[in-house]
């Protein structure tokens, strides 16, 4: 009698062990299938393929990885005027009139190329605290303002109006020549 009871108990343990092993195997296979069919998201541009990593779209150009909040196709309503190139920012200071998500987005991508970043003012009247006053004829300054959603250049200044992150991404796509 005792032998039959022990046999049933072992049989029950074996049954549940098999059920859990099958469940574990199927969940692993399911995860692999979902990821192989683009479960992480992706998009293409003329410059390369974007992939979604956390909250950022990333693209690998050469050996450098760049991070964006928006894809180029999401920014078609943000107008841009002026000439922008990476060489304009290489090994020189970059000044920002405001510290916000847009400036952080720019620094995340251009920080490896610029000499340093600093907050600054473009006129003494609008200057709070002891920030330096910079001139668009001499210094690279990114100026954030409310407005219609545009990016434009004036001498060495870049004016980003509207959503700071959308403006920053549009500016970065132009600087990095990502279409």
Biggest β-sheet: strands ordered side by side in the sheet: 5-9-10-8-6-7
Can you tell me the number of structural domains? Answer: 2
Task: Please state the overall shape, judged from the principal axes of the Cα atoms.
Answer: elongated
Q: Please bin the fraction of helical residues.
A: 25-40%
Cα-based radius of gyration, to the nearest Å: 26 Å
Q: What's the SSE pattern? A: HEEEEEEHEEEEH
Question: How many angstroms does the end-to-end distance come to?
Answer: 78 Å
Strand content: 25-35%
Structural class label: alpha/beta
Task: Name some characteristics of this structure.
alpha/beta; 6-stranded mixed sheet; 179 residues
Question: What's this entry about, in short?
Answer:
The chain is built from three helices and ten strands, in the order αββββββαββββα. Helices cover 32% and strands 26% of the residues.
Describe the model.
It is a single chain. By secondary structure, this protein is an alpha/beta fold. It has two domains: 1-39; 79-175, no CATH class. The protein is built from three helices and ten strands, in the order αββββββαββββα. The strands form two sheets. Strands 5-9-10-8-6-7 form a six-stranded mixed beta sheet, with helices on one face. A four-stranded antiparallel beta sheet has the order 1-2-3-4. Strand 1 and strand 2 form a beta hairpin. Helix 2 (101-110) packs parallel to helix 3 (164-175). The radius of gyration is 26 Å and the shape is elongated. The relative contact order is 0.15.
């Amino acid at each position: 009698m005792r032998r039959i009871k022990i046999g049933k108990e072992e049989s029950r343990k074996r049954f549940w062990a098999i059920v859990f092993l099958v469940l574990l195997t199927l969940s692993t296979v399911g995860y692999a299938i979902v990821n192989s069919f683009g479960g992480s998201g992706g998009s293409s541009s003329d410059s390369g393929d974007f992939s979604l990593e956390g909250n950022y779209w990333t693209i690998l150009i050469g050996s450098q990885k760049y991070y964006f909040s928006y894809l180029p196709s999401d920014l078609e309503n943000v107008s841009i005027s002026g000439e922008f190139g990476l060489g304009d920012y290489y090994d020189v200071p970059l000044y920002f009139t405001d510290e916000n998500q847009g400036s952080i987005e720019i620094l995340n991508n251009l920080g490896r190329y610029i000499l340093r970043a600093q907050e600054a003012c473009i006129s003494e009247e609008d200057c709070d605290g002891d920030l330096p006053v910079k001139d668009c004829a001499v210094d690279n300054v990114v100026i954030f303002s409310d407005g219609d959603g545009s990016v434009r250049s004036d001498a060495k200044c870049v004016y980003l109006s509207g959503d700071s992150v959308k403006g920053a991404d549009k500016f970065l796509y132009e600087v990095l020549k990502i279409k």
